[in-house]
Amino acid sequence: MSDTKATVLVPGKINPRVTERLQGNVEIITVPAGGELVLPEGVAERVRGIAVSGVVSAAWMNALPKLEIIANFGVGYDGVDAKHAASRGVVVTNTPDVLNDEVADTTIALLINTLRRLPQAENYLREGRWAKEGAFGLSPFSLKGRTIGILGLGRIGLEIAKRLEPFKVNLGYHTRTKRDDVAYTYYGSLKEMAEKVDTLISIVPGTAATHKIIDADIFKALGPQGVFINVGRGSSVDEDALIKALEDKVIGAAGLDVFYNEPQVPDAFLSLDNISMLPHVASASVPTRNAMADLVADNLLGWFKDKTVLTPVPETPVKG
Q1: How far apart are alpha carbons 53 and 74 in whole angstroms?
Q2: Which of 21, 51, 156, 320 is deepest in the core (most CB within 10 A)?
Q3: How far apart are CA 39 and CA 44, in angstroms?
Q4: CA atoms of 112 and 106, how far apart (whole Å)
Q5: Residues forming the active site
Q6: What's the distance, CA 220 to chain centroid?
Q7: Quick one: which of 290, 320, 296 has its CA closest to 26?
Q8: Using CA atoms, how far apart are residues 94 and 299, in angstroms rounded to an integer?
Q9: What is the DSSP string of 248-317?
Q10: Is the dihedral of CA 61, 308, 15, 25 positive or negative?
Q11: pTM here?
């Protein structure tokens, strides 16, 4: 790293460990997230990197003539226009692998909570209703004997599948390309998978290709015993269709960690008793978030030191 410190822009909030790691090694400029990028005179010309947990638009990139790298906090980087970055020679990195286990563990917990209604049962106890009203009602579903289809069998999807194997369920998946390294049943389309399974777990990223692909037709195919779990991106689901499917018992239940317009959650979800919801916490443990923050910082510091990064995204012009 040269004597002149690189300038790194931090829009909005990011895990504090990122800035702690960068402090003293780079000049940090904080700005509000979203909207138009407004910087003091002369600062835009100094910015070489961005550390972000959110959105970096093409317009922001165009306003920073010396920008070299955008380090995204998170596996999903749909908030960063990676194709535009690549066209400008700007490297984009994300934080894969370090959160695989945490997200997979949370997925299993959310699935069991959804099937067995464990959060509702705990609330029943806490409200004193067990003593006053008797035993909590039987859960309508069980994990035993289920046929589970995973939409998206990447790194996290594989970890979810491995965790499900001891539960003696039947496992299948749908991805754009069939994998040769797994024995799970492959379905050629999402619709076909929804027709053949009774539990659908989505772990796909938020892209134009996945936007609202889980819709009324998919819920109808899943059926009244069907359970839908989403730990990928809220944008992959038609939430109006999901609400209607839950209200009309087109499907049996749903478990959601992600929503279309976070942190806004439709009021209709809150009134349903056949849904389990989490506020996007699948990777939200201190050890996992620290590991993600370290990866953001290491990508930036590595780039400024010798033009190397650990985890470039596929669109980016360099390899890790």
Answers
A1: 7
A2: 51
A3: 6
A4: 10
A5: 233, 262, 280
A6: 25
A7: 296
A8: 9
A9: TTSSSEEEES--TBTTB--HHHHT-SSEEE-SS-TT-SHHHHHHHHHHHHHHHHHHHHHS--S-B-TTSS
A10: negative
A11: 0.93
Number of residues that make up the chain? 320
Paired tokens of 68: 């070299």
Walk me through the domains of the chain, giving residue ranges and CATH numbers: 7-96+287-306 (3.40.50.720), 100-277 (3.40.50.720)
Return the number of other C-beta atoms located less than 10 Å from residue 273's C-beta. Answer: 8
- pLDDT tens per residue across all 320 residues of the chain: 445 899 999 999 999 999 999 999 999 999 999 889 999 999 999 999 999 999 999 999 999 999 999 999 999 999 999 999 999 999 999 999 999 999 999 999 999 999 999 999 999 999 999 999 999 999 999 999 999 999 999 999 999 999 999 999 999 999 999 999 999 999 999 999 999 999 999 999 999 999 999 999 999 999 999 999 999 999 999 999 999 999 999 999 999 999 999 999 999 999 999 999 999 999 999 999 999 999 999 999 999 999 999 999 999 978 77
* Calpha distance 83→175 (Å, rounded): 22
